[in-house]
Amino acid sequence: MAILNITYQGLSADYELELDFAASDEDIRRIAVEVVRSGGVRGLHVAQLPANAFDQFVVDRLRAADGAQRIYLRPKVPFGA
Amino acid sequence: MRILICGVGALGSTAVQYCRNLDAELRLVDFDRVEAKNLAAQWFVKQSLGKNKAEAVRLQLANFYGAKAEAMGVRLAATNAAQLLADCALAVDCFDNAESRLALAAAAKTANVPLVHAALAADGTFGLVRWDERFTPDREDREGQATCEGGEHLPMIGLVAATLSRSLQDFVRDGARDDYMISLSGVSRTS
To answer: Which long-range contacts (CB under 8 A, 24 or more apart) does B122-125 make?
Structure first.
């Protein structure tokens, strides 16, 4: 079990995911499109989400403070100054 | 404690403003100069136009709040990184490109100085505050991609900068190194 956090158009939501951690970044992006389209991610339902919506997104695999495995699918953040 | 702030554009200048009461000495690094377009999204006033950004922030801190800081109007590079990091207990990355972020990360690692990064998405809907041990710089989707220069993203810049400042405050207080994710949904601690 892992928590997949998806951030899209400024909204961010968690989805509980039964997933082998060997899943590739491409797998994560594809799954995210499916669950967001289906309404499976509470607070983040986009029925007409394009198949390539997450193509440029970054997949981070981190361990939360409580020890849970978390996967973050997020926009790139190249800017600062 | 001395803190090195690298890049005082949108995120850096705004974060420094929120750090003015921090129990630390700030060393500001930026080679760039203040342009009129910067006034929309960066913590600069009209009187700072034309000045070096690090010097402009130093002057604004002194004039508005009586707060002291050190300004270094140079570009951080392998040749001067050790000097800039000297006597610093913490480094902060607010740069706007992956190359500078990587150069700073390498220098901070060599100098054994903790490093925290702050970064924004191009569309102003998302940001990160993340410590170096869990951070990989993102590159632009295409060179010259639109940045957060326009004033439309100022509220998100403020959110990310405030979160960064809080993270610095926590580090100064007890050495905490917490990561944060900032979206329009709110601020979430991620470590």
So the answer is: B122/A75, B122/A76, B122/A78, B122/A79, B122/B146, B122/B147, B122/B148, B123/A75, B123/B153, B124/B148, B124/B152, B124/B153, B124/B156, B124/B157, B125/A7, B125/A9, B125/A10, B125/A75, B125/B156, B125/B183, B125/B184
